[in-house]
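Lesson 9: reading folded outputs for more than one chain in a single document. The general rule is that every protein is listed as its sequence immediately followed by its structure tokens, and records are never interleaved. Here is the first one.
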Amino acid sequence: MNGFSDADFDFSFLEEGFAARDIVEKKINEVSLSDDKDAFYVADLGDVLKKHLRWTRALPRVTPFYAVKCNDSKAIVMTLAALGAGFDCASKTEIQLVQSIGVPPQKIIYANPCKQVSQIKYAAAHGVQMMTFDSEVELAKVARSHSNAKLVLRIATDDSKAVCRLSVKFGATLKTSRLLLERAKELGVEIIGVSFHVGSGCTDPETYTQAISDARCVFDMGAELGFNMTLLDIGGGFPGAEDAKLKFEEVTTVINLALDKYFPVDLGINVIAEPGRYYVASAYILAVNIIAKKVVLKENDSDEDDGAKEKTLMYYVNDGVYGSFNCIFFDHAHVKPLLHKKSKPDEKLYSCSIWGPTCDGLDRIVELCEMPDLQVGDWMIFENMGAYTVSASSTFNGFQKPDIHYVMSRPAWKLMQQMKEQGSILPVHDLTANTLPVSCAWESGVELPNTACSSAPIV
């Protein structure tokens, strides 16, 4: 990659002492007297960089191939490309996206086991050789359509403890794997390795151990048939938010032990992974505005307070499940609203529900939560909104997608430039607590100076 050169991509510098949450507050304050209170994102590209540094420390043997489907924002793709990551693409459009910013085909794996013939031919014409398969039909398709393909056999895993299961749709059993390898030999197709995916939102790190062990068996099968298999793809499933039940380092410790046992370094196997939410979940903050409100009064059956009525509140905001909150349906997400307006210590809380703006009764974001009595024009904030949100949102009912405002601290930008120039992580630098911006103005009503963030196009 030659660097950031897209004129449409720009970000704002975070000045020292400020964080992405402060920019959310600043933008809310800017529109406080206006009727134009559209939902918006603030995305911290420095958070993506911080995740990359954490990855290289925790998984030094594993090269990340970012799963584009998780968040296909061009700014994210450009940032990860500058950091030297590869890319897991599932379609022609995703391949076009990453190649449009100069990513070489060697850093792309077409990791969709069920590909349209025309898109296989597109990959062939544009130099993308690594691609996955898990069936004889797919093997035959690739053999006919891509003479230079380097195939990776995807095996099934036990993903019963994952939030989003994938092996119900993809992956070959060990028995089927042998048959597929034999068929590939007959067709003269090159098999370079094995891939698996333990499921999105994996909750049991030992699943990786079994999957890596199974991959070792398939490598041995391949060796018996004369294949020179040099690639292991351990897929995704890595947590992206700090409040996840399973911590990132818990997963990586198990992976490293399994790799050392089944694929020791001296074998020279190239190990890659397909992280998605890990990189982008925590980078995005979404701010939504209350556009309507309904007060529902319910008769109280208590004999002690005869005639009293219990109040519940329904809030309607300007983004919903057809937009950013599609993650609720597609990714089994459980979102938690934070209030922009600071609550009083003794403020009464009410049973509330939160709804999106469309005319569909399914457009419910939160079924039940407790919040104060808020008003139309007040704001709610949702953190950890970078994964499987913007990439799958629609404009159903004519509601537009929220704007995304990208930010980055100056130390993060400087480090990214150094890494881009040298092509590797610089061991003498890091984004520690001494260099990362710490919020100093999170509370509502604190006006940020104009220098809190200054526009700086990436060139």
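And here is the second record, again sequence then tokens.
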Amino acid sequence: MNNGRKRVLIIGGGFGGLFCARRLGGTDVEVTLLDRSAGHLFQPLLYQCATGTLSIGHISRPLREEFARHRNVTTLLGEAIDIDPESRRVTARRPDETTFTLDYDVLVVAAGMQQSYFGNEHFAQWAPGMKTIDDALNIRQRVFTAFEIAETLPPGPERDGWLTFAVAGGGPTGVELAGQIREMATRTLAHEFHSIEPEEARVLLFDGGERVLKTFCPELGETATESLQRLGVELHMGVRVTDVDRDGVTISPKDGGPDEQYPARTVLWTAGVEAVPFARHIAQVLGVKSDRSGRIDVGSDLSVAGYPEIFVIGDLAGREQLPGVAENAMQGGLHVASCIRRELAGKPRRPYRYRDLGSAAYIARGQAILQVGPVKLAGLLGWLAWGFVHIAFLTGVSNRISTVSTWLVTIARATRYHRAFMLGATGRPEQHYTWTEWDAPTPPPPNERSEADSG
């Protein structure tokens, strides 16, 4: 029932899918945007939500609200799980595990990446990543609960373990998390406890490189290192995290030295990403190459070889070392929309050219770095530039106004207004801290249970 109009199916409501659908709004095509979440998430500010500065509402917006004025854009909740390229049909799964199908004339794969543990999936139980809102709330729960538990313990190794936070990965996300935890401990929580001194909390940052923020120029990387060290973050470079368990992490120096163990009851993982399962499935079904992380080979226009009607954008596009940053996804989404619009007008597609708009990393209040071509900013200027650059890209005017208002308050005060967290509920094993391990009813022994059942 599309009145003969071209059907465009976009998988993923992140930056790539969002900007593609926006540009196609009001055009003579039928757009369906499928995402496993009901809202668009501004991932670059996710760590601010995890550490209590911003709320979920500040960094996300319902997709239905976003596209309410575009009558040719339909948003659906579901997860793509299968594709039939011959019939041009995608199968999606609803939250209740039932499935439905969607037909397309043009398919845009903007499903993004997920956290990678480099084959050590058991790490995830003890070291959550930070890619979704659920991840941010999980981290918020773990970090604030760690201080609460430490408050009830006497001085000693057990308390020290709860007041030690390990971060794996020295990229922007790892640096931002480490800096925020130290800032929170030394400013926000400094005078709120009686038995512990939160400012004594240790934050350990592990990375295999020679310095943090390797994508930035050495000058800004050194500035970030000095800022982290002034905050009290302990940097351990040139090491690999080889094990994570309930009590901490084990690291192996890359130069071949002996393994070292660090007791830490809160471990956070930002060390790598990989393609979501559907992206790997597409590569297999289409018979196209993908790299070790699952990025799919694409042509100059971001389409898949042999399938000009299928585009891959954002983090999943494997071409010319395209960076896994929001700007690449945005530009890729706009490019694909342009290709579709040009074809509607009988014009040929143009090749995709990524324009580097710079990089930024937040360390602590008044400390950030920004690199845009030859322009390099650090300290307070970098922090102000970081804030307004990020807020400028937020979805929706209301999000920008509320976020900038909250952010401006943090300039004057160190208070974090969004620190609420919940402990786990019965029957939710994915919740890290919960009362259910001790207050749930104890089941009777098997012999007693069988007798009760038979009676």
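What the second record shows: The CA atoms of residues 341 and 359 lie 30 Å apart.
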